[in-house]
Design goal:
The chain is of the alpha+beta class. Helices cover 51% and strands 22% of the residues. The protein has a 5-stranded antiparallel β-sheet with strand order 1-2-3-4-5.
């Protein structure tokens, strides 16, 4: 799980830069005097952005298949549905924390975190 969340956080930080590079390369490739190298750079930048998005989607799907909810992709924040004293709650973990050590009531979110 930690590896998947690390990957999501990395890709979440990287994707905006890759998308910017693809937009810039597209602009340069559409210019009247664009060179073959500029067209190739556009295709490579586009492939990198699409590839990062697909990897991000696969990683999120992996979490979802485990019943884990992604709450904060950049910070690596996830919740696990659970019960405490018969009440539905969410166990809460954030990238950088050693173990799952917090919980909150459903709907309270990160601000409502309490120590287990």
């Amino acid at each position: 799980m930690r590896r998947i969340v690390e990957q999501i956080a990395e890709l979440s930080a990287l994707r905006p830069e890759l998308e910017d590079q693809a937009r810039i390369a597209e602009y340069e490739a559409k210019r009247e005097r664009a060179t073959p190298a500029q067209h190739e750079r556009h295709q490579q930048a586009r492939d990198a952005a699409v590839g990062a998005e697909l990897e991000w989607l696969k990683a999120v799907a992996s979490l979802n298949s485990l019943g884990i909810q992604l709450k904060g992709p950049l910070e690596g924040l996830i919740d696990f549905p659970s019960y405490r004293d018969g009440e539905p709650i969410e166990l809460c973990w954030k990238l950088g924390e050693e173990k799952v050590d917090h919980w909150h009531r459903v709907g309270e979110g990160y601000a409502g975190r309490k120590k287990l």
